[in-house]
Design a protein that fits this description.
The protein is of the alpha+beta class. It has two domains: 17-53 and 190-242, SH3 type barrels; 70-182, Alpha-Beta Plaits. The protein has helices at 6-35, 81-90, 129-136, 170-182, and strands spanning 70-76, 94-96, 99-106, 109-116, 121-126, 141-144, 146-150, 161-165, 196-199, 208-215, 219-226, 229-236, 240-242. The chain has a five-stranded antiparallel β-sheet. Strands 2-5-1-6 form a four-stranded antiparallel β-sheet. Strands 3-4 form a two-stranded antiparallel ribbon. Strand 10 and strand 11 form a beta hairpin. The longest helix has 30 residues, at 6-35. The protein starts with 5 loop residues before the first helix and ends with a strand.
């Protein structure tokens, strides 16, 4: 007859208690799945208006390009993009910087991350050429994009190309801006179906799982390995961590 020590009995008791918690959580998950109503981690039923990380981001407003302004392209100095934008705005220069948008999940929350699409490039709107000179001399601005044109400023000079600031067509720029805004209807990244995660809270903490489906109201359906077989469990986004 094998005599168990006190530590072995305590270990066995903890193991049985852990298995009971797992079975209770499994039964709750099965009941929620049968009802089809997701329940938040606080126990309060989530309303239909709650946003899920599976939802794309909509409603990106398309900036209006003022046709009364003269539009040009400014190149900023390396690592001075933010300072250049602030200096231009202080000089009452209208700026537009096309950005790409993506949605990431950090610690169970949706975070919208925007990054410039064109490196060191800003579209600027000025009142006249004098205002353009102010923009060109602003802190962080390297140059105004120019194009070669024939020099006809002084009669009798030898004809030849000179560089002059390239003015943009306001309507064409507006169409470009509209396309960029439409392209910002993006799908989130960070957690996807089929991805391996680790449960961080609750009775399944430290258990590996595989995401089977992203549900509304920031919920996930994952397959947790219980008793040697995968078992479906519904968890919140904040209850898992990407491996």
């Amino acid at each position: 007859m094998t005599v168990q020590t006190k530590s072995q009995r305590a270990k066995g008791k903890r193991q049985r208690e852990r298995e009971r918690r797992q079975r209770r959580e499994l039964r709750r998950a099965e009941r929620r799945e049968a009802v089809g109503t997701p329940v938040a981690s606080s126990g309060v039923q989530a309303g239909p208006s709650a946003r899920s990380i599976a939802d794309p981001i909509y409603g990106v407003a398309s900036p209006v390009i003022d046709p009364a302004l003269c539009w040009f392209i400014a190149k900023t100095m390396p690592r001075m993009g933010d300072r250049a934008l602030k200096a231009l705005q202080d000089a009452e220069v209208v700026t537009y910087q096309p950005r790409s948008t993506e949605v990431v999940v950090r610690r169970g929350r949706r975070v919208i991350r925007r990054t410039p699409m064109l490196i060191r490039t800003v579209f600027i709107g000025v009142r006249d050429l004098a205002h353009l000179d102010v923009a060109k001399s602003s802190v962080g601005v390297a140059e105004i994009v120019s194009r070669p044109v024939e020099d006809t400023s002084t009669e009798g000079n030898i004809a030849g190309p000179v560089l002059k600031p390239a003015r943009l067509d306001a309507q064409g720029l507006q169409r470009f801006v509209d396309v960029i805004a439409k392209g910002e209807f993006v799908e989130p990244v960070g957690i996807k179906a089929g991805q391996s995660v680790m449960v961080t809270t609750g009775p399944f903490a430290t258990f590996p799982a595989v995401v089977e489906e992203i549900l509304p109201n920031d919920r996930l359906k994952v397959a947790v390995s219980l008793f040697g077989r995968p078992s479906p469990v519904e968890l919140g986004i904040a209850d898992v961590q990407v491996g």
